[in-house]
Amino acid sequence: MTINFKNTMIMGVLNITPDSFSDGGKNFNPATAIINAQSMIRHGANIIDIGGESTRPGAQAVSTTDEINRVIPVIEALRQSTDVIISIDTSKPEVMKQAVKAGASMINDVSALSADGALEAAVTLDVEVCLMHRQGDAKTMQQNPTYTDVVDDIKSFFSERIQACTSAGIAKDKIILDPGFGFGKTLAHNLEILKRFNEFKSFGLPLLAGLSRKSMIGTLLNDREIDSRVIGSVTSAIIAVQNGANIVRVHDVLETKDALTILQALSGDKIG
Ligand code: YH5
Per the structure, how many domains does the chain have? Predict the structure, then answer.
């Protein structure tokens, strides 16, 4: 399968961690992870985003070796059994290299290739890269996020990172942009980003939206617990697509696919 941004794509989340707060570490065993990935593919996922490090505030940092040992067997097994696009969710250059060697064709980096050696790794690997915006680091980002204008500030960040990538030798048409819902943003910031999502279209690049199960949905639904945020998550994904998102990163693939199918019937857009 190849990436075709004319169609809306579903990216299914596969966390290979013992402590993920969105899915409770259910994929820590590689065999279970593969079964869950195959089920997301059956349900309509076009991309599987595989991550071995939790972004949870205060989560244990994971060593490069541990991260590699978690994700590589799953990438290899999926590569052998499916033609789905495999995305590696990491900020570490060595993990990017091993993952692409094992069959990944996309890098999803919540730190937008800012680690030492990450830009260089992405140039050599010549795969799609998703640049996500984040204010602050995992520990501090929710303490007091501040912006002059949240959308304009994120657009300035995108300009700077696109420039850094293209100067390093990454082809512009390999870049995907993501404003990073929940990463150093208040509820008001997240809502403004969702409402004005279309403004990120000005770069002429594909846009990714990750809202699934996040705190903003829990807060809007009166502190709803994580596994009862499905309808809120699907609704948010649909709004993001209507406002210009090309890829939605979700935990609940079947439900999101159904909603996108209804939207497609109205708009004539293709899905997948
Ligand atoms: C994203 O938006 N997000 S990991 C907290 C939750 C539920 C889910 C409190 N990686 C993104 O999914 N990569 C993550 O409940 C991402 N864009 C991209 N590109 C956070 C997450 C989550 C956090």
Answer: 1
Check pocket membership of 28 for ligand 1, CB cut-off 6 A.
no
Residue with CA nearest ligand 1 atom 13: 110
Instruction: Identify whether 1 is part of a domain.
Output: no
Q: DSSP string of the chain?
A: ----TTSBEEEEEEE--S--TTTTTTT-SHHHHHHHHHHHHHTT-SEEEEESS--STTPPP--HHHHHHHHHHHHHHHHHH---EEEEE-S-HHHHHHHHHHT--EEEETTTT-STTHHHHHHHHT-EEEEE--SS-TTTTTS----SSHHHHHHHHHHHHHHHHHHHT--GGGEEEE--TTSS--HHHHHHHHHTGGGGGGG-S-BEE--TT-HHHHHHTTS--GGG-HHHHHHHHHHHHHTT-SEEEES-HHHHHHHHHHHHHHH---B-
Nearest CA residue ID for atom 1, ligand 1: 210
To the question of pTM greater than 0.85 for the whole model, the response is: yes
27 lines ligand 1 (CB under 6 A): no
Which residues form the domain of 163? 10-266
5 within some domain = no
Share of the chain above pLDDT 90, in %: 84
Is residue 2 one of the residues assigned to a domain? Answer: no
How do residues 184-226 score in pLDDT, each as one tens digit? 999 999 999 999 999 999 999 999 999 999 999 999 999 999 9
Please give the distance, rounded to the nearest whole angstrom, from the Cα atom of residue 210 to the centre of ligand 1.
Answer: 6
Q: Does residue 272 sit within a domain?
A: no
CATH number of the structural domain spanning residue 239: 3.20.20.20
